[in-house]
Amino acid sequence: MKLAEAESTMQKTVEATQRAFNTIRTGRANASLLDKVLVDYYGSPTPLKSVANISTPDSSTIQIQPYERNTLNIIEKAISLSDVGLTPSNDGTVIRLNIPPLTSDRRKEFVKMAAKYAEEGRVAIRNIRRDALDSIRKQEKASEISKDESKDNQDKLQKLTNEYIAKIDASLAEKEKDITTV
Predict the structure, then answer these.
(1) Are 137 and 129 in contact (CB under 8 A)?
(2) Where are the domains of the chain?
(3) Which pLDDT tens digit goes with each residue over 71-116?
(4) Where does 31-98 sit in CATH, by number?
(5) How far apart are the first and last CA of the chain?
């Protein structure tokens, strides 16, 4: 594994962690809360955003406008069965989700969930570092690179690792601030 490859994989890990953070409620309506919701669309699980337009008309409402009217009940059922924790209300043409204000206990739970996602991201980045280090050491053993090059690459890899872990920590701090802000 080359350094550029490791950096690319670490960047993808940071983006995946950010997407996980986006699925956590903050007390304000956010269409990304529904990213994990899959709708049984003609027998195949399909992301909700592929079968409906999702908008936030105000800070406490998410509005879902299906592209096909006959999917309204299927979408409503998928949201009810998901782990979003919101009850859909269907008026015949659109589905509305009202976002209730978060209690302090619920905010603490969401902060813990965000911390868990961040730790998973940090572990993934450290695993990428481990794999890249193994690759560098194998190259050194096979005499493909010198000891000095190996040491330089290992130092660069550690700096990369620290940089991407710092990005995850910054995202976590921002998300915690969003969650705890009333």
Answers:
(1) no
(2) 3-22+103-180, 31-98
(3) 888 888 888 888 777 788 888 888 888 888 878 888 888 899 999 9
(4) 3.30.1360.40
(5) 45
Amino acid found at 75: I
In tens, the pLDDT along 147-167 reads 898 899 999 999 999 999 999
Integer Cα distance of 86 and 163 in angstroms? 37
Question: Residue 102: which residues within 8 A CB-CB, separation 6 or more?
Answer: 25, 26, 27, 110, 179
- Architecture per CATH, 3-22+103-180: Orthogonal Bundle (1.10)
| Encoded tokens for 135 | 């690759």
Listed in sequence order, the residues at least 6 apart from 116 whose beta carbon sits closer than 8 Å to its beta carbon are: none
Cα separation of 136 and 146, whole Å?
10
Radius of gyration of the chain (CA): 22
Say which amino acid occupies 151.
K
